[in-house]
Amino acid sequence: MIFNWFRYSSPISFYPLAGRLSRVFGVLAVAFTIAGLYIGLVVAPTDATQGDAYRIIFLHVPTAWMAMLIYLAMAFWSALALGFNTRLSAMMAQALAPTGALMAALALWSGAFWGRPTWGTYWAWDARMTSTLILLFLYLGVIALRNAIDDPRRADRACALLSLVGAVNVPIIYFSVQWWNTLHQGSSISFTSAPKMAMTMVEGLLVMTAGVWSYCIAVTLARVRSIIVERERGSGWVASLIAPQGAR
Amino acid sequence: MPPSSPLLEARSLAATRGYATLFQGMSLALAAGEALAVSGPNGCGKTTLLRMLAGLAAPAEGEILLDGARVHPFDARLRDAVAFNGHLPALKDELTAVENLAAWTTLENERADLQAIDRALDRVALGRRSRIPARALSQGQRRRIGLARLALSRRRLWILDEPLTALDSDGVDVLEALLATQLGGGGIVVAASHQPLPVAEGQLRRLDLALAHHG
Amino acid sequence: MSETWATTAAPDAASVSAAFGWALARDLRIALRSKAELGVQLMFYVIVVSLFPLATSPSREVLATLGPGVLWTAALLASLLSLPRLFSADFSDGTLEQIALSPRPLPALVSGKMAAHWLTTGLPVAVLAPVLGGQYAMDGTELGILAAALLLGTPILSLLGAIGAALTLGARGGGSLLALLVLPLYAPVLIFGAGAVDARRAGLSAGPQLSLLAAGLLLALAAAPFAVATAVRIALD
């Protein structure tokens, strides 16, 4: 049984709330993204040194932030799942992993397309890109472990433990890659040395971040709802949800 | 403690495998000197129930009590009380019967010297094969090492998965004597078995997982 | 605390060392009875290291550049290759159930197993690497630094790898899944380990890298036994 400390820690009461929140954040995601893209692609001025190529940062920077943040969120829910054996926390961690992996992949993909005109190569072993690549591997490991274990409760706890081990390692990996990069004097241009941004660029970046953030919340909550239905399909309330005029 | 109060108790246990429910609402109570024979067709959850009672697996619902207090998986009190002979033999092929038993008793914190181990192996008629690697032993002989382990065990709670498998009639006689000693000393035995358990009728209780407790 | 993970009273030092010693002695005894397997693993290391010059060039400059990286990457792969042996035999023959049900403290028992794993895989590699380093145009000081880094780094590989080995017990996909889980976690060890020799070549001190490896080893020693014990219990459930 689960701890009913909070009303919404039980899947049955969280399910409808997640549906409402998911729709709200879905609308917000569309609105913010349209506004952010308008500011980023139309309003913001062309950069003096990088030309129009820099505009990929309106996708790259928010996704890179989210890739990091979602890993922390996943580790947080994993700690709750392991510590208190709550079903919903494990489901939240499970729902976050694919979105986190997508964000890491988008950050790498958009980073490569920024690197091509900026550094003259798609991949330059920049410290942040390398760290994000390893972060993507960590996400893929969690997802692969989940798929490799048949029993969902065992998979919950195994993935929770792996996420926590990963979370302890993420700062160490970031530090070590940074160290490695400075020692080897790899690329001289890094994202930090990008020229001073105009005010509209900052605004576009913030609005796009809000959009990506909303998208992640909306998609994660929608995924949690399908996980709840899948896991609890044997129980009465899900059966009546799927077929309101059903036999039960 | 009054003699009637149960040593081992389970309250409305439920077990799931994947998304399927094996059993639910399963309750049982065993007092000192009682044996429980769990039966039922393959896949009905016998091994799962045994693993829950041994503290290896968490029940999907319900609770398990030892001496009236709730125990969780891998609880220290459970680990001090249980001897678990699962369907896996837990034998190392590289080690001899004596080395396997010595490793086992050290792990379980039982005080058994070499003489005690040799006596136990004599009792299960393995004395002459006690110093060759376990890989050279037959299936029945390997099961007998498990019996020798029970002979050395002073645990209150024996949990045995198919203890009669691969045993010849002499082996069954040894098991019968071991079970009688355990139950006579106030211990408890829970065994999953397709064959009748060699235990006196007055001490035996039965649980058919196929008949009851399905969701 | 959790209802699934029972917490027991803190075990005293005597029972911890007894449990550690039991598992270490038992795993070493089993390993020594299958010496051929240990030899094969060392041969794997030797062959991987020896193949790199064939794949690149015999020129001393190229080999000197590649050397520390090759010797470290091969050590990673040798560790990875031997990891399934750590728990899978005990898992499939039921010994791991008995270990987890033992009244002795599980973190100490799995620590003994990890120590045996390092003594039979990491330590031989650390001893062998300076000999093989001669193939890669490394001088005496560099070989010493390489050995020191491997002595500090290979135990981390055993400790981190054991977490992955325990997590993948009973999971589909065995070895390649284990590689996916464990290799990203190995990245810092690789960076600091191979970096120690590079630092010396760049005219710097290898001290920072070796200190960081030692710090990582202490962290892994403190945390991994508990993570592995939890993973073993999860795998048995």
Q: What does the largest sheet of chain A look like?
A: none
**Number of domain units of chain C:** 1
Q: How are helices and strands ordered from N to C of chain A? A: HHHHHHH
- The CATH architecture of chain A would be Up-down Bundle
Main attributes?
heterotrimer, B: 215 residues, five-stranded parallel sheet, four-stranded antiparallel sheet, 6 helices, globular, C: 237 residues, disordered N terminus
Structural account:
The complex is a heterotrimer of chains A (248), B (215) and C (237). With 248 residues, chain A is mainly α. Chain A has one domain: Up-down Bundle (Four Helix Bundle (Hemerythrin (Met), subunit A)). Helix content of chain A is 76%, strand content 0%. Chain A has helices at 11-43, 57-84, 87-119, 127-148, 152-184, 199-231, 236-242. The longest helix of chain A is centred in the N-terminal third of the chain and has 33 residues, at 11-43. The two termini of chain A are 23 Å apart. Residues 1-5 and 186-193 of chain A have low confidence and may be disordered. In chain B, the strands form 2 sheets. Chain B has a 5-stranded parallel sheet with strand order 6-7-8-3-9, sandwiched between helices. A 4-stranded antiparallel sheet of chain B has the order 2-1-4-5, with helices on one face. Helix content of chain B is 31%, strand content 25%. In chain B, α3 (97-107) packs across α4, α3 packs parallel to α5 (139-152) and α5 runs parallel beside α6 (169-184). The longest helix of chain B has 16 residues, at 169-184. Chain B has helices at 46-54, 76-81, 97-107, 114-123, 139-152, 169-184, and strands spanning 8-17, 20-30, 35-39, 61-66, 69-71, 82-85, 157-161, 188-192, 204-208. Chain B has 6 helices and 9 strands; from the N terminus they run βββαββαβαααβαββ. Chain B is globular and about 50 Å long. The model of chain B has no long low-confidence stretch (mean pLDDT 87). Chain B has one domain (8-208): P-loop containing nucleotide triphosphate hydrolases (Rossmann fold). By secondary structure, chain C is mainly alpha-helical. Chain C contains 9 helices and no strands. Chain C has helices at residues 13-33, 35-55, 60-82, 84-92, 95-101, 106-133, 140-167, 174-201, 207-236. The longest helix of chain C is centred in the last third of the chain and has 30 residues, at 207-236. Chain C is globular, with a radius of gyration of 19 Å. The interface between A and C is medium-sized, with 34 and 36 residues.
